[in-house]
Specification:
about 350 residues; two-stranded parallel ribbon; 12 helices; 9-stranded mixed sheet; alpha/beta; 11 strands; single chain
């Protein structure tokens, strides 16, 4: 929570000039400690449905301990679901109609798997854009992850993502581009973020449409950007919500796809993720998989237990910090009635007063 400038101490002015949030006494009196209601639109496939829940719930739960967070998971039509996932959704998820009736203070939209070259051809495109349109009018801030970022940029600004020559896959170093923006306040100026995607919206295209880039990588492109108003929509191209084993699980799935002849080439390692010892172990395993694919030997299980102790998570603290800053700002400007996006006096076109 921010400092309150209850005196004329010059330090308050100096901190404000450095980009820190400093509240006036009048503004502070207009806020109350209360609960926040966060929606999670989970459009991940069945295999990642519950893991995605845990990842985003964990980041929200690690935020400021003064507020009480109620997270409301829901999903949309147009996604293939098996019986177990459907039962899970039926038991634990809310409907979008219920979400609209009750309102939200903030909304997180997960990534998704796609089956078409163009997002507008996906069966879930219509339902997803319906959520976008409602959230733009009724929710204080929307945070988009990866595929959701690409979809919303296309829907709002007409920019289609570009297919990359190869999958952008691994853990990459990023640098804070705009140190004064409140979303990156008190965060290391350089930190890691995992990426896993075949497509990209480039920084030049974002800038052309007024999006403000906050964090980017020379190797991986833009990770964090915001809408022209500075806050209403937050865009992630990376996956700060990932667990330490997430890329290992993806690598395992790609290895099995090679074994089943669903891909011709053996998958490369995610960049900057496996240490040399793990790479040696997995190179030995590659020979076993290739032999098994040709019927020479049975397929052995990937030696996950031997790998787990070698995995580092170098992005969790920065991910928590960004989420804490995001929800802290939501807390400061959202209306106490969660059906309304802002408290009195907040400018929707510049909600943070930047």
């Amino acid at each position: 929570m921010p400092l309150v400038a209850h005196t004329d101490l010059p330090t308050f002015g100096r901190l404000r000039d450095e980009g820190e949030e400093i509240l006036s006494p009048a503004r502070a009196l207009g806020q109350s400690i209360r609960e926040l209601h966060i929606g999670l639109l989970n459009i991940m496939p069945d295999a990642a449905l519950e893991a995605t829940e845990r990842q985003f719930f964990r980041l929200v739960g690690a935020c400021n301990q003064i507020a009480q967070f109620h997270v409301h998971p829901f999903t949309i039509a147009g996604l293939e679901r098996g019986p177990e996932a459907l039962a899970h959704i039926e038991r634990y998820y809310e409907s979008f109609e219920q979400i609209k009736r009750d309102g939200l203070d903030a909304l997180i939209i997960s990534g998704a798997n796609v089956t078409h070259d163009h997002l507008q051809d996906e069966a879930f495109w219509g339902p997803l854009t319906e959520v976008f349109e409602w959230a733009k009018q009724n929710v204080t801030s929307v945070l988009c992850s990866c595929l959701a970022t690409h979809a919303l940029i296309q829907h709002c600004y007409g920019v289609e993502r570009t297919r990359l020559p190869a999958k952008r896959w691994g853990v990459f170093s990023h640098k804070v581009v705009d140190r004064r923006h409140p979303l990156v306040a008190e965060i290391n100026t350089r930190f890691d973020v995992p990426h896993s995607r075949y497509n990209e919206v480039f920084q030049a295209d974002m800038a052309k449409h007024g999006l403000k880039v906050l964090v980017a990588s020379d190797q991986a492109g833009v990770h964090l950007a915001v809408s022209p108003d500075g806050f209403r929509i937050v865009f992630f191209q990376g996956h700060p919500e990932y667990d330490d084993i997430s890329l290992l699980k993806e690598y395992k799935r790609e290895v099995l796809r090679f074994y089943r002849a669903e891909r011709d080439d053996y998958p490369p390692f995610p960049e900057n993720y496996f240490d040399p010892a793990t790479q040696r172990l997995l190179s030995e395993y590659e020979a076993e998989v290739k032999a098994a694919r040709h019927g020479a030997t049975p397929l052995k299980a990937l030696p996950e237990e031997e790998i787990l102790g070698h995995l580092d998570i170098t992005w969790r603290d920065s991910a928590k910090a960004v989420f804490n800053n995001w929800l802290g700002k939501v807390y400061q400007i959202t209306n106490e009635d969660r059906r309304l996006p802002f408290m009195t006096g907040i400018d929707p076109d510049n909600p943070l007063g930047l």
